[in-house]
Amino acid sequence: MTLSKLTRRIVRERGRDRCEYCHSPERISTSRFTIDHIQPRSLEGSDDLENLALACSRCNQRRYNFIVGHDIESAETVSLFNPRQQIWADHFIWSADGTRILGTTPIGRATCYRLDMNDDRYQGERSITEARSLWVEAGWHPPSDDPRQAD
Length: 151
Known about the structure:
alpha+beta; two-stranded antiparallel sheet; 6 strands; 25% helix; globular
């Protein structure tokens, strides 16, 4: 089933035109962001607005149909971050230089790990941390309303 234009517009506006997982702004992406099913369709997820989030292709591909992740610090298996039920700043902060997302809770750490939010490996394309450093330099990143680690 295809989502309606109205549903897509609502999700985009609610996400403030940035990925609801990594907070990358869509305006500096080379590809249009996707509508992610928080509870994947393959796991009986619906097309209800409360199950949809705006996601960059990077986060969407790495999240795939996972709904849980592993927190290395606590050794717990926990639910991944849910942008409809949780507040980003309760689980994540930006590194002082604005290039890395730091999970501050088991959910945040598991989500960072599962979605590989700080991939700095070069595999034929610019790594996300390298791209973020350019965005920071240009004054586009991180979002001004996101918490940041103290210097």
